[in-house]
Structure formats: C-alpha cells, structure tokens
User: Which sequence fits this backbone?
C-alpha cells in the first residue's frame, strides 16, 4: 500500500474529518506506537519496515576528535542500542563492521579490554547524528550505508507502507483517538467564553 | 570444503552466541567484554593455558613480562643453543631501571606449549636465578645475562593487550553458556530458577570440557568431588 492510499483510506473511515496533513501526522504517531508495541519485547525480523540509505558521508569533527554521519532521515526509535538504526556498513562492506552501543557504555568500556582489542566500530546516536568510536578502519571509511526504520512523516506519498500484521485495526483506533482529541475545525479555541 | 578451525577468535564465539539467540549486533561490545572476562577467568581457574614469550635481557639484567601474564611456569635462558631453566629465587629484588632501557618481550611464540619443539636441559643452571615482580611487570635475573635471549613460560589470561583474542574451539560452548548465565544472573527481572538453570548449563559445559581434555575417568570423579574447581598448574 502506498502512503497516500493509507492516508486516504483512513480519512474515509475516520468519524471526524481533519486536515489531511494533520491526519498524516496522527498516522505517523500511531505508526510509531504500533512499531514500538509490536517489537518492544522481541525484536524479531523488522527488515520489511527498514530502508537502506547509502553514500552517507562520514565526517570528522576536529573540535572533539570524533567521526560522525548526519542521520539521513528521522527514525522510529526502538528500545535497544542504536535506537532505530538496524545496521551500518561501509558502502560495499558486509559482516559485522559496525555495532551499536549506548553512549553511556562508551565511558564504561574505556580502558577495558574490549576497547583496545580489534573489533567492529561502535556507533551511537547523539544530537541527530550517528557517532562513531575512533577504532578500526573508521579513519579510512568515507561513505557508509545505513539500514534504519524511517519515520512515517519523512516518507514520500508514493512510498510503500507496511503495517505489522494484525495491527490495521489498532492503527485506525489510535488515529481516531488522536483525532478525537483535536478541537473541531470550525470552532475557535482561544479560551475566550464570548467567542463562538 | 575446508575443515573448520581448531582455534577461533572470540568474535567468532560471540557471533555463534548471537546466532544461537537470533539477536543482532546491538550491544556487541558489552557482550564481548563479558565473554573476554569469562575467558580470562577460565584461563586463571580452569584451563592450563600456557604461553611462551621470547625476550632479550636488558642492561640491568631484567626483561618486561607480557600484559597477559598471570603466573610463571618457568624461565629458560639460551646458552649456546641450549635452553637452561633458571631457579626461582623469591629474594631477588627489582633493580631501578630506565623505562626506555627495559626491553619489552619481543615475540609470543604462537604454539601454547613449546616443550615438543625446544629442547630444555634437565639440569639446572646453578648460577642463574630469576624472580618476577608482577606489579612492576618485570622479570629480574641473577647472573650476568645482559643481552641474552630468554624464554618465559607462563600462565596466560589468553587476552593480549591488543589485536585479536584467540580461543580454543573446545571452549566455545563453555563461553557461550557463561555469557548466557551472566546476562541472566545480572538481570533483576529473571527468576532465581532460571538463573540457577543457566549456571548449571555453564557448569555442565565446563565438565564436558574437562572430560574432553582429560581421558582419566578418575579426573572426572575428582571434578565432581571438587565441585568443578581444578588445581593450578604444576611447576
């Protein structure tokens, strides 16, 4: 199903009429909630929800001596290290080249064996950027490909949308719930009792 | 098809664990550190992982011991092509030395036990003695051996200061069960029964390792008697 088809079909079913752009926002929030609820306990295969962004630049910040990439899009956050980033590879690489860790673990691992031995390059999310530990071949990698779950809002209207199996009803329920909390479009909600 | 390797990397063992669990690579370093500690503990308390390094004695009759050193097995000196074991003298004290003058061990000899390759004189060198200051990471010698080649045979943690950690393949199950046990043990949400089961599984893997390593059934009996704890290596 295309993104535009999903928005229009939900718009048809919705008991309250809202602006399509606002509706897309609600669907995005509901979509995040459904992905989280479905996978929070067991992060099974999520490949169908992911997208691969290649040719992402690896930059160097000389102020902090750190390597980083700017996140290509906003991601759906997942309760695991790396948040919504499923994997990172050099453009043509395979195998475990990069591995997610929590930024707090970075300090803990400093000075431990794992920090000095050969291993994959750790990454974590910080200020909308993917940060890389200065380890392994990061100094020689200038482009990466990132597999992640993009937010609903950043997808194009003609992009395919996949909803976790058995969650269609829940999606409509959540969107209806969000839409029900918005004031009717013809009412003025300025807190003034004289305003009609 | 090529044969599988008898020595694997710790990354291989960790990937094997992640594969068993069906997990991805998130928190890879955390799991790897736990596994490294497990491997190191195994080498201290359970295996007899003996390494040998070759070094050259410096100008104050000392040489640097490697970072994976736990305890010594023997020190041998190369005297005209013969390897002479030195006596241990715990009264030898460390000489002040210039850090730049201390020769770091030169090379790990990759085969863990070199007995079969290098001939060692059965007679002791009556003049040479050694002592090791573990904290200072220095081996000091008595007798003028400056510039001589020495071999230090030692119990290793198996974890070098850099590079790759190699693991005997027969320890794969022991390490994966160790990691499983530690993850459960440190998780407050896991019940005591599940924790004990994980601990038992690790204990079983250890017993299997002993059974594989030692052919004597008496040894297996002793393992049960000692509750899985082994004595240290014999010098």
Assistant:
């Amino acid at each position: 199903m295309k993104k535009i088809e999903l928005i229009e079909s939900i718009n048809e079913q919705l008991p309250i009429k809202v602006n399509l752009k606002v509706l897309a926002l609600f669907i995005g929030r509901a979509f995040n909630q459904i992905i989280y609820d479905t996978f929070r306990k067991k992060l099974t295969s999520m490949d169908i929800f992911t997208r691969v962004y290649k040719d992402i630049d690896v930059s160097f910040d000389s102020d902090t001596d750190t390597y980083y990439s700017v996140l290509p899009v906003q991601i759906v956050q997942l309760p695991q290290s790396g948040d919504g980033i499923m994997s990172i590879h050099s453009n043509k690489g395979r195998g475990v080249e990069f591995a997610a860790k929590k930024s707090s673990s970075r300090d803990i691992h400093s000075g431990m064996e794992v920090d000095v031995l050969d291993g994959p390059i750790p990454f974590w999310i910080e200020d909308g950027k993917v940060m890389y530990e200065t380890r392994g071949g990061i100094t020689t990698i200038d482009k990466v490909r990132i597999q992640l779950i993009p937010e609903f809002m950043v997808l194009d209207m003609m992009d395919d949308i996949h909803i976790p199996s058995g969650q269609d009803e829940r999606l409509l329920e959540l969107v209806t719930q969000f839409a029900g909390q918005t004031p009717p479009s013809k009412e003025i909600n300025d807190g003034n009792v004289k305003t009609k | 098809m090529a044969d599988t390797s008898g020595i694997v990397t710790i990354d291989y063992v960790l990937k094997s664990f992640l594969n068993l669990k069906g997990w991805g690579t998130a928190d890879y370093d955390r799991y790897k550190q736990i596994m490294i500690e497990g491997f190191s503990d195994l080498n201290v308390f359970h295996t007899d992982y003996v390494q040998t390094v070759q070094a050259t004695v410096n100008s104050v009759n000392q040489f640097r011991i490697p970072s994976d050193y736990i305890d010594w097995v023997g020190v041998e000196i190369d005297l005209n092509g013969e390897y002479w074991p030195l006596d241990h003298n715990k009264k030898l004290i460390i000489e002040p030395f210039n850090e730049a003058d201390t020769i770091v061990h030169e090379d790990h000899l990759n085969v863990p036990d070199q007995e079969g390759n290098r001939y060692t004189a059965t007679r002791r060198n009556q003049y040479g003695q050694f002592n090791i200051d573990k904290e200072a990471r220095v081996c000091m010698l008595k007798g003028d051996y400056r510039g001589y080649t020495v071999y230090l045979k030692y119990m290793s943690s198996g974890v070098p200061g850099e590079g790759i950690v190699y693991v005997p393949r027969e320890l794969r199950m022991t390490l994966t069960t160790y990691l499983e046990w530690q993850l459960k043990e440190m998780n407050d949400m896991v019940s005591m029964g599940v924790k004990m089961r994980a601990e038992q599984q690790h204990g079983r893997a250890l017993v299997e390792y002993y059974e594989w390593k030692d052919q004597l059934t008496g040894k297996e009996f002793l393992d049960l008697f000692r509750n899985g704890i082994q004595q240290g290596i014999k010098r």
